[in-house]
Amino acid sequence: MRTVDVAVIGLGLMGAAALHALAASGADVLGFDPISVGEPRGASHGSCRVFRRFNFENPAYTALSDRAHAGWRALEAESGTTLLTPCPVLEAGPRGSPLIGGSRAAGAGGASGPATGAEANAVFPAFRLPDDWDVVVQEGGILLAEAAMQAFRAPLADRILLGAARLEPTPAGIRVVTAGADVLAGQVVIAAGPWIGALVPALAPLLTVTRQAVAWFRPASPEAAHPGAFPIFLIDAPQGVIYGFPDFEGRGVKAAAHDHGPVVGPDDWGPAPSDAELAPARAGLEAFVPGAAGPIVARDVCLYTNTARADARPDAGEEFIIDRLPDDPRIAVVSACSGHGAKFAPAIGDIAAGLVLDARFDADPAFRLDRFSSFARFSS
To answer: Domain for residue 50, yes or no?
Structure first.
């Protein structure tokens, strides 16, 4: 049986970042994942994610965004690969929209840039927002998700074992078993996305996995949909929150509903989204971004792993879980990210490394498990 300091279970963006941070610290670390980069499964699969500096979900994320931004730039320098392409982020909604209010509270929407729908339409010709809508345009970028996973993982290929892992805590360490390996780890980081409830059953009641339908639309006005003329967008529409990207890959405008889809299991990736599932995204584009509202040319499924509202120390839900398990602090959990965590991966990877390498390192109270009554009993 091989012995290591740390095992990382799940090597999407969060787990790969943790593996990278642990290896950089000098830890003897192995990563485990049954999915290779580029496979159409896993919470981090696909080409791109949104990077926002200011986040309507929580104003406290700004420091985390800045730390992550520095991490992305460092990883670009290390790998020689572009991972984060600057692109403005336009957020829009009716007057009083909580999305816009949250972004402004976090620091978005300075003196420059469009502040109303009419002003945004004049700057971005693909858009047709109501003139009196509230708008913020903030700095952001297109995070190249699969390229980022590859950049984290490629230098550590000899430390990655492909295969689904099961855990067996023992007094001597945490046994990690796959079809081809048997490893004893002193510490474990679990970053298994939608599969985390199976690995940590006590977490399962706090998590809901939802199916999110994504599509690429051939832009009706191609000249208005390319980067430079077209921002990343989040629109607080009557159909729900719709988000999308410029046509930066030459295969169309990627757009989807951010609101939760139907509850599914962690292995429910098929079939491809139907026209009915994609109707909210299409309706949002037709109403507010007509320059992007052409025919659908590609479809995909993403899974969100959503965290329930806390009750011992209340929060609004959909907050991260980044903490040691109180009943076995040798195991740290880095999930679930509720559909808005990818941009923070370098920062969260560093935090995960701190949790398993430094007994004095404490998790952020907002991310701790003791905010749930089912775990609060373990608190001192």
So the answer is: no
